[in-house]
Every structure is written in C-alpha cells, then in structure tokens.
Amino acid sequence: MDDSYVEDALNTAEQAFQDTRGQSSETDLDVSDEALVQLRKACRLLEAARTLRSQNGYYTVVIEASFVAIERSIQFYLFHQGQAAGEDLRHEHTAVYQRGAEVNLFSESFAARLIQLWQQNRAEVYYRETVASAEQADAMLQLAEDLHRYLRKFASLRHECVCSDYDD
User: Fold this and answer.
1) Pick from 151, 47, 156: nearest CA to 96
2) CA dihedral defined by 83, 86, 92, 98, rounded to 10 degrees?
3) Sign of the C-alpha dihedral, residues 54, 61, 119, 100?
4) pTM above 0.90, yes or no
5) Per residue in 144-157, pLDDT tens?
6) In sequence order, which ranges of 3-133 are alpha helices (DSSP H)?
C-alpha cells in the first residue's frame, strides 16, 4: 500500500486530525463541558442506531453503537459527578462499568452482568465470530436507550440531552 492511493488517503486522514482549523464541528457536540460532550455523543450514537435499525438491517453496527452509547452515558455521569476524568477511562471498555459500580450508580452484580454482556457478545459480534440478529440489535438498543434515560434522570440533567426522542 505504500506509495499508492491508500497512502494518500492515510496522509489526508492524519492531516484532518492534526489541523482542525476551519473544520465543521458536529452539531450540538461543540461544548466545553467534558461530561456534556459524553452525554451528547451517547445521544448521537442512539440516534444513529435508531436510524440504522429502521433500515431493517445493520444489526452489527446497531449493537456496536448501543454498547458505545452505554459507555458514553456512564462516562457522562462519572465526569459530571467528578468521579473520573477523560484519561481515566480511555483504554479499557469495561473499566467504565466497574467505575459505575464503585460510585454506586448501580450494583456490583449489575456491573458484572454488563461486563459479561460486553465480553461475551460485543466482541463476538464485532469480530464476526458470530452473526448478529435483529433480536440482539433490538435488545441492545433498548438497553442503551433505557440506561441513557435512567442516567439523565439520575443526574437531573435531562434538559442537556439532544436525543430526538426526548420525552421525559
């Protein structure tokens, strides 16, 4: 791939992340509050998952987006409460579940179930060791939406959410 159009694309991608002057930011994510960015990223991921699910397919992507939306929602709460900083939770996906239990956001057993769900199912679907189903995508999207809604209420910051289905 060296010295080919792929290397040119890699150069362009690297430059896009290095020099952000003049670039268009995603609507509603251009905020200075680290917790609010995570909340709104979860909102966007849920909207994307709903859109893809309505297309009658894309189960793997819906499952992946749902897992990430769950992580972003929990991170929002931890950042908002001063229980974690961005660099604390960047490298291990399941650490956010453990941290949620440590601050009594949910029980240790609930965190263990989330971790097990992630380890046994997200990884298998993501790496195509199994084929995702409509039922799995629907269940994961519902879990992500319910957890997101619960955390908004728990943090009493519902007005900061940008979900299109904001109804509570």
Assistant:
1) 151
2) 10
3) negative
4) no
5) 999 999 988 887 77
6) 5-18, 34-54, 59-80, 95-102, 108-117, 123-126
